[in-house]
UniProtKB/TrEMBL annotation:
Domain Fe-containing alcohol dehydrogenase-like C-terminal residue range list: 305-435
Transmembrane segments: none
Protein known as: Alcohol dehydrogenase iron-type/glycerol dehydrogenase GldA domain-containing protein
Organism of origin: Purpureocillium lilacinum
Alphabetical keyword list: Oxidoreductase
Length: 438
């Protein structure tokens, strides 16, 4: 039995009163939170697949009882504006005092942005996707204030997120959604209260996640760790904690994903354990839940450098955001494809010794944790992704045309992680993309 562990989301003043519960039981912890807050008008936004393939969502609906005002099942990949607007209008229509998100990062991002929009548009006047887009600062690729420079109002309702993937957006006050032109835009600020009031990490619920989604979103966390370590700012005075958190997160993710993959025993026996002795089934189930819990702890470590020290992600994230938006490739898969080639480009093109030293450290972590003898960080990342049975080329995800590749590169140049002082220019991004055409 995994021990429940309640912690403050981040060890900074702005997160006081914002907690996370590791090894949660969401069916117990949600009603307890609602009772504590006095919430009585709840909007549930939940995974359609989870609702169709398990009893978890119906059980939660029953547990909520009369407090449940409305349920929305399903949010599109990368949080389309249409879904974000729909959730915001449901919040307004039902005067929801709490939103509960159960699903992947597309759900948590959509709900965070929807809560923000519901507080900033008049419920008596309909707002459309053009109004959402008008909030985005074109230079910075982010919506955190109005055209006159005034800050957006904080959300008025509570928010609980129950993640079923490892992309870890629930830890961030900043969120992203995709407009009708296929451009991923970012909403919110660092300390504007956009983070959930409560994050529930429930390994039993997460175990229902499709294997590909869990593993690929875990690679997304690996991407968080690696890009934070590679950022030269993480080596500066005053930023010493960034590397420590990222390194711990990377070790957690490598161990946790490996345990998860072993517990699944893909190709060895039926997933339901038919033909397996009871003791072996129990062992595999315990290993699975332990691996999931390890990954969930790692997902928090993976983002700490960004959220506390404001050290940004890098080119893998910038390119990956737009690969996802342009070609409808899910979050984690974008990291499976882009992280290794970005590391290769950095090793070949950037002279700052920080990159060489950090890549050596990343390589050591992979080799030590997995008893490998790889010779480059990029090769270790690529081997790890392949060991999980995940794609590593653009062709693997159906991106084959020159026009699509150029669109991805073009949109990368105004991505929030690609703007400002960036490592790559357009031709550099094209070089990286072309190196993984497949």
């Amino acid at each position: 039995m995994l021990e429940k562990n309640r912690v403050q989301q981040l060890d900074i003043p702005s997160r006081k009163g914002y907690d996370a519960i590791f090894n949660s039981n969401f069916l117990d912890d949600i009603p307890a939170a609602l009772s504590q807050w006095g919430s009585s008008r709840v909007l549930l936004v939940a995974s359609k697949a989870l609702a169709a393939n398990s009893s978890h969502i119906s059980a939660l609906q029953s547990a909520l009882g009369d407090a449940l005002a409305d349920t929305k099942l399903g949010v599109g990949s990368h949080s389309p504006y249409a879904d974000v607007r729909d959730i915001a209008q449901r919040i307004q229509r039902h005067r929801a005092d709490c939103v509960i998100s159960v699903g992947s990062c597309s759900y948590s991002d959509a709900c965070k942005i929807s809560c923000l929009l519901a507080a900033n548009f008049d419920p008596a006047a309909s707002f459309d996707e053009a109004d959402m887009e008008a909030l985005v600062d074109r230079e910075r690729g982010i919506a955190d204030r109005r055209a006159d420079g005034t800050a957006l109002r904080r959300r008025a309702c509570r928010l609980v997120t129950v993640p079923t993937s490892l992309s870890a957006s629930e830890w961030n006050a900043l969120s992203s959604a995709t407009n009708a032109q296929g451009k991923k835009q970012h909403f919110g600020g660092w300390d504007d209260g956009g983070q959930p009031d409560l994050i529930l990490l429930d390994p039993e619920l997460a175990a229902t996640s499709p294997e590909r989604l869990w593993l690929s979103s875990g690679v997304r966390c690996v991407d968080h760790c690696v890009e934070l370590m590679c950022n030269p700012r993480s080596g500066e005075v005053g930023y010493e904690g960034v590397g420590g958190h990222a390194e711990r997160g990377l070790r957690c993710m490598i161990r946790g994903l490996t345990e998860y993959k072993e517990a699944k025993g893909v190709g060895e026996r039926d997933e339901d354990g038919q033909g397996m002795e009871e003791s072996e089934r129990r062992r595999r189930r315990e290993l699975l839940l332990e691996g999931i819990s390890e990954c969930q702890y790692g997902s928090r470590e993976a983002l700490t450098g960004l959220l506390i020290w404001r050290v940004p992600m890098g080119p893998s994230h910038a390119i990956g955001h737009q690969l996802g938006a342009v070609a409808n490739v899910m979050h984690g898969i974008t990291s499976c494809i882009m992280l290794a080639p970005v590391l290769r480009w950095q090793a070949a093109n950037l002279s700052n010794p920080h990159y060489k030293d950090t890549q050596a450290k990343i390589l050591d972590i992979f080799n030590e944790t997995l008893s490998w003898q790889e010779t480059s960080a990029a090769d270790a990342v690529e081997r790890f992704v392949k060991s999980l049975g995940l794609p590593t080329t653009l062709r693997d995800v159906g991106v084959v045309s020159d026009e699509e590749v150029r669109r991805i590169a073009d949109k990368t140049m105004t991505d929030v992680w690609g703007g400002g002082k960036r490592q790559m220019e357009f031709e550099d991004v094209m070089e990286v993309l072309n190196s993984v055409r497949g």
